[in-house]
Amino acid sequence: MSSNIERMRAVASSNPKFDKCVVINSFAVTGTSCEMLRIYAQDTEDNQVVASSLKGFNIDNTKEIWVPAISLSEIIGRMPEERIDLLKMDCEGGEYDIVFNSPPGLFRQIERMLIEVHDVDSQSNVGTFSQYLEHLGYHVSYVPINGFCYALEAYRR
């Protein structure tokens, strides 16, 4: 979202140390490689906090836009380090596509994850998400944020 990118760049440039060590790219993150991703957002030019790739994720997301996309595998493949200490995700329901559709071997490089997880339906919920991460070799714990959203921590066993 262009307004979010502009805001991130303004915050980064206001802190010289932060500005030197952070790279801001304008992509949506996916689990499988694709050129563009459909996003549902609020019909406003203001910053977006609940824009999602899931139609119906938020009733205020009435605007449909297409944005450039990159897979988590592509991001990690471009990094100079092979090991990732912390992966943090807050992607409004997109966590399922990103984690479930990324190659399982990719997660051997990630030591710890902090993920906001949303209960979307019987297939996409914090329980199934936690079980999958445990299958990948993580110890998982989570606490509720509200009735359908959880703060999840996963660390390599």
Write a structural description:
The chain is α/β, with parallel strands linked by helices and 157 residues long. It contains 5 helices and 7 strands; from the N terminus they run H-H-E-E-E-H-E-H-E-H-E-E. Helix 4 links the parallel strand 4 and strand 5. It is globular, with a radius of gyration of 16 Å. It starts with a helix and ends with a strand. The model has no long low-confidence stretch (mean pLDDT 92).
Alpha plus pi helix count: 5
Protein structure class: alpha/beta
Low-confidence stretches: none
Amino- and carboxy-terminal Cα gap: 36 Å
Quick take:
The protein is of the alpha/beta class. The protein is 25% helix and 32% strand. It has helices at residues 2-13, 16-21, 72-77, 95-100, 126-135, and strands at 28-30, 36-41, 63-71, 84-89, 110-118, 138-146, 149-156.
SSE diagram, text form:
Layout: H1 2-13, H2 16-21, E1 28-30, E2 36-41, E3 63-71, H3 72-77, E4 84-89, H4 95-100, E5 110-118, H5 126-135, E6 138-146, E7 149-156
Parallel strand pairs: 1-3, 4-5
Antiparallel strand pairs: 2-3, 5-7, 6-7
